[in-house]
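Shift notes (night). Ran Dipeptidyl aminopeptidase/acylaminoacyl peptidase while the centrifuge was going.
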Amino acid sequence: MSQFPDIREYTALPRMNALRLSPDGTRLVSVVQSLNPDGKSYGTALWEIPQDPGGEPRRLTRSAKGEAGAEFAPDGTLFFVSRRPDETAKESGGDTAALWLLPERGEPVRVATRPGGIGGVRAAGGTVVYASEVLPGDAATEEERRKARDEAGVSAILHEGYPVRYWDHDLGPAQTRFFAGRAAREGLEDVRDLTPEPGGALDEHLSFDVTPDGETVVATWRVALPSGDVRWDLVAVDVADGSRRTLATSEGHDFAGPVTVSPDGRHVACLREHHGTEETPIALDLWVVDLSTGEGRAVAGEVFPASVAWAPSSRELFFAADHQGRRPIFRATLDGAVTRLTSDDGAYAELCPAPDGSVYALRGAIDSPPRPVRVAPGGSVTTLPSPTPPLDLPGTLTEVTATAEDGTEIRGWLVVPADATAEDPAPFLLWIHGGPVSSWNDWSWRWNPWIMARHGYAVLLPDPCMSTGYGQDMIQRGWGDWGPVTHADLMAITDECLKRPEIDEQRTAAMGGSFGGYMANWVAGHTDRFRAIVTHASLWNLDQFAGTTDGANFWQREFGALGSARYARLSPHRWLGEIRTPMLVIHGDRDYRVPIGEGLRLWWDLQRSGVESKFLYFPDENHWVLKPGNAVAWYETVLAFLAQHVLGEEWTRPPSLT
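Came back to this:
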């Protein structure tokens, strides 16, 4: 290990994104993201991960277009999705994602294509099911109809229901459908359209699995409700004839992914989300449904799982869920007995239970990028070889707590630079997480405190009210009262950290993105204790935001009808006249979750009010900043702004923006 990389080196580090275990437990495959040769984008490839700590990872695929979506069939066949050209075909299939098969020995073979590309894939019982976006109408004529739209210059979409956008892309006119075929040596045979008229029911939030006999697809299914609202049910689609029956539906609940069928084919596990209301916050249960009767029950309540997987015995489930600033692995039996499996500070994901009782997973943490591990039945953790390098962190990580005004304990993580001392204390940065129903418990490639520590800042990552992993009461504390209660929690734990001699209580700043940006705006209007505030993808005028976000129906449940008193009371823009702190506003034009209008309005309000401010605008980024070059520009601009106002240095335009 060497010194923690600078910003440009950091953006070039490879990252593990997924993990899959073959049914017999002999092969472990990961999707790894790395910087493309052009340095302007990321690509993905499949890697085999050794199950012996002394082994070496082996790259399985290599193409300019990359590979993702790895899934094993019961016989050990490995499927993946890629836009790579098929050198054995006269027509390569263009630039759309196709379904490929990778033999254990040999070259990849393309087995299925669609004009709209192929998304997720599942295989069982000799059946292969995949999802593809298809224009409404006969799937057999889609290619000609796509060509006709293109030649006519038609990009318009006629909507007859809600929603119309999702995160960073438009919905429609194509709709997601399921296709199923019989696995054969040369590809798929008897491919058929299982859902010819889905009406958008499979668009977004889609999660599905196939029963072990290959006869049924179990999936989430969106149902349109009056007044623009929606609900997600759980359905079973017959592979033979496409008939559909509802397995789980409930007014006031969504049945959401991950959807996973038990190895014995008797049950399906998913998440059941209780809709939030103006009085009651959202809540999640780990829900198990009997596939024959549709009867369902919670086997773990009030949890926020990141991964769910059946044990090979089908008698228990493993899940990873937020808990006290960590994300441990838990074991749940079908009668609801839940035990914690891992006891460390890790944040686990991509759970892969093995026949021998162990669980393979990706383990991340605030101080560790995700790496492959094997968790023994007793909970001990063995780190496996990884295609990603270990990192030498430029500081220490400490757990901190404070007491809120109502007596609630507020906890968080504090990153302190290695050279910070009482004689030379570090400047302080409060970093507020998004969500708001979320937690600081895992490594983040986008919001990384160690980059800030490398530049000398102590970074506080607090979990105030509405953070997950502390029970429903913690979420209830701030539900419908975002600004005031969250602000009080943040100030309480900030005050506690600033008592430390190695932290400079005079040189302080605050920042956050999404809900964290909302809170950065709220903090700016309610205190002048910070020398600088950075607000990314932030909510500014709630009444404006709630009608233009991609999921307005979700916000209406908590805040009520547009124009209600709650919007006005909690909207940061009402305190514009109180803002004295210099602000850096950051926003992407393709952000549909918090539309660009929020950033533009905030920027104009600050300018017309004479508040010292800058606006970092990304025309081609969404809610996050994903392109490597733009990520460099983001960090360089934030650091330059903080250096000017927190460290008292002269403003220097970031090198990436000169």
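The mean pLDDT is 95. Residues 96 and 117 are 5 Å apart (CA to CA).
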